[in-house]
Automatic annotation (TrEMBL), chains A, B:
Sorted UniProt keywords: Cell membrane, Ion channel, Ion transport, Membrane, Metal-binding, Potassium, Potassium channel, Potassium transport, Transmembrane, Transmembrane helix, Transport, Voltage-gated channel
Recorded superkingdom: Eukaryota
Record field: transmembrane: 21-44, 106-124, 131-152, 202-223, 235-254, 266-290
Protein's cellular compartments: Cell membrane
Protein name per its UniProtKB record: Potassium channel subfamily K member 13-like protein
Recorded catalytic activity of this chain's protein: K(+)(in) = K(+)(out)
UniProt cross-references to InterPro entries, sorted A to Z: 2pore_dom_K_chnl (IPR003280), 2pore_dom_K_chnl_THIK (IPR005410), K_chnl_dom (IPR013099)
GO biological process: stabilization of membrane potential
Membrane topology: Multi-pass membrane protein
GO CC terms of this entry: monoatomic ion channel complex; plasma membrane
Organism this protein belongs to: Labeo rohita
Pfam families per record: Ion_trans_2
Length: 420, 420
């Protein structure tokens, strides 16, 4: 167990220092989301409202013209349209569509349930179907979430492996260019081995974004060819489907007939599975970037309101309370990422300021330790979010050091590679 | 760095021992999902197909009757119906509905985008709207995923806090019942402190499932009163909305007029936010349970095909290769959850078999160490999934020990509590 003792009365009297950082972050995120939603609502309203009003006017005109031209009692016509609303809900359209509930249709439906896309081109109409869906979806969605997470893990492993290969290759090329005849060993030094090295969050995000873009472009090409959609519309469909939003305004594979029907259905399924998995990975990594931004904002707020005005970021003490007989247990159980790192403050080391590179928490801790004036508050945990929490506290109290973020999956990836 | 050396030729010749456990798990999960989908497709097809055929017959009859009764050219009628299809896509219905793209409508739409529910009651019809959606959704969905994860963290913190309180209360009651006058100290012993103790996965799942059920029941009550849906239909809507499937066959808050309109809209929003957050948490925890099951199946498969037939689970050696000067670095950086745990095999300790309790990995490791015949393979990582991986390897090679699973968030939760 590690405890932090704050020295400085100013710090103690500051309200900001007593904020629970976890709650502060979730509330900050909440406000960001609400403002983002207000902004989005304003934009969408401005973009879509005119077309909606136009559609209403057009439909009223078309209906009136039909009643006038064919002398049909409007009550009868409205009754027919009510029937048609129900028919549409059951998947009926004027242009023939494929059956909703034959086996392959039901399989497509089930896939949209488990992946939480939920296009809604088919939805259970019977009460039994609805009840079954609740129990079926409960397991299905959880299993798919697990699949996406395992996929993310594999993707990170692959990215780490490939980027490490590239890095090694570059190093080799650089060394051979220098023609250092004496240095025959072109292997990277120990600290550069794969289990030590991890690509940065931003690098992983960039690679994943590129992959998602490529999958989107490829899939859009397929859909625009097969569904007669415009390319940009296909891109929109791909995003809506792959992000599991699934409005259902455009759904692939719904025509009654396609050229090479089965080939297209299989390609469609594979595209959706690949797209959803990759997009989920991208969202997860982007979420980490957003978390870093929140941490940065919180740190700025804390340092602005607490430290600068009251000068509390001065002397630090890190006390490691570790009963001798508990050492192994604590190290193993709480995994004590940084427990055994003693509070040493080597003044000769430089502070990595506003670094964008992703490092492990304890590299961050080293960085923190090498910073001249800061305060440490370590939490006895070894999980990702606690790592972040540690980092936040570091960055909150250290005015100049923006400690970088640790990406758990990268660590895992290198470990997995090490095992192979 | 920890390396495992296998002794036993039989093991070396066994193909199963060379399987990458991470790939094995994802492929096993994949097959489970595919079979689950096939089963679901068969059930839904059986339940829904008759109603679909009936709906087709009914609509054809209604259309034919209308054409016959009113002597309308069927081409003209079909043209009107095509127009109506487009009008429906723009949110027009015979029974007046609320506007889709006024500010509050757009706000509801944006919320369904960010949460990935995507009911589809409104979807951008303009090309600009579609392009904006892609960029808007990219950030929005990632931010919401982060929000759900932070919410999950808070929920686990709360559950750990409450269950720990209950536990302490029970212990106190038990002690006071015994009337041990001499023992004045009714405080729980050291090992029972909150940062040591965590509720089991199953317990957390049970509590979360109860919370989700209560939220669902409450929300269903609200919707069945306000939307004139049957209670079971409301339950179905709640599940579909809260799981972010969002078919859009039933959407709350779409009537043009409600009693206490604004109160209902706010209640509706709060219900959806609470429901989605809780259901996401439940799915995440259920995913962990499913992962445990997969690990158990993999362990069984491995032990059946490798160990039993070839008797490889006999003598084990755990070599800890830890350069002295790297000790701190490794412990802190790779966090080496179990690196410093030496391979001691106390024969007097008993093996916890098929335990359902959730323990930390290193408690599991202790258990593994106390098992008489097993083989250890430790990976240098400290993250949840690696913990699991370690556990898998342990359980894969130890015939009788079903090592329990570690829930990262619980660890975090206790750490967060510790910080307060």
């Amino acid at each position: 167990m590690v405890q932090s003792h704050h020295f400085g009365r100013a710090r103690k009297s500051c309200i900001w220092s007593h904020i629970n950082i976890d709650f502060a972050r979730i509330f900050l995120l909440w406000f960001v989301i609400v403002f983002y939603a207000l902004f989005g609502a304003a934009v969408f309203s401005a973009l879509e409202r005119p077309l909606e009003l136009e559609a209403h006017c057009r439909w009223n005109r078309q209906l009136a013209e039909f009643v006038q031209d064919h002398q049909v009692p409007s009550e009868d016509l409205l009754e027919l349209l009510r029937h048609y609303e129900k028919a549409i809900a059951a998947g009926i359209r004027i242009e023939a569509r494929r059956p909703r509930w034959d086996f392959s249709g039901a399989f497509y439906f089930v896939a949209t349930v488990a992946s939480t896309i939920g296009f809604g081109m088919a939805a259970p109409a019977t009460l039994n179907g609805k009840i079954f869906l609740i129990f079926y979806g409960l397991i299905g969605c959880a299993a798919t979430i697990l699949f996406f997470n395992l996929f993310l893990e594999r993707v990170i492993t692959l990215i780490t492996f490939l980027t490490h290969r590239c890095r090694k290759q570059k190093q080799k090329t650089r060394l051979s260019k220098r023609h250092i005849a004496t240095n025959m060993n072109t292997q990277p030094e120990h600290g550069d081995s794969q289990e030590d090295w991890k690509p940065s969050d931003y690098y992983v995000t960039l690679i994943l974004a590129t992959v998602v873009l490529l999958v989107n472009c490829g899939a859009s090409g397929l859909y625009s060819a097969m569904e007669d959609w415009r390319y940009l519309e296909s891109m929109y469909f791909c995003f809506v489907a792959f992000s599991t939003i699934g409005f259902g305004d455009m759904v692939s594979g719904q025509k009654a007939h396609y050229e090479a029907h089965w080939v297209y259905q299989i390609a469609n399924s594979l595209m959706i599975i690949l797209g959803v998995s990759c997009t989920y990975s991208l969202f997860s990594i982007t979420a980490i970037i957003i978390k870093q931004m929140l941490n940065w904002i919180l740190a700025k707020l804390l340092s602005l309101h607490c430290c600068r005005s009251q000068g509390c970021c001065s002397i630090t003490t890190l006390k490691v309370k570790e009963p001798a007989n508990q050492q192994i247990r604590n190290t193993s159980n709480h995994s004590g990422t940084c427990h055994v790192v003693k509070a040493s403050l080597p003044s000769e080391s430089k502070c990595k300021c506003a670094s964008t590179a992703v490092e492990t928490v304890c590299q961050s801790l080293d960085t923190a330790n090498s910073c001249p004036s800061f305060e440490l508050e370590i939490r006895d945990s070894y999980k990702l979010s606690k790592d972040d929490a540690e980092k936040e506290v570091f960055s909150a109290v250290s005015k100049n050091c923006h400690l970088s973020h640790h990406l758990s999956v990268q660590e895992e990836a290198s470990a997995a590679r090490h095992k192979h």
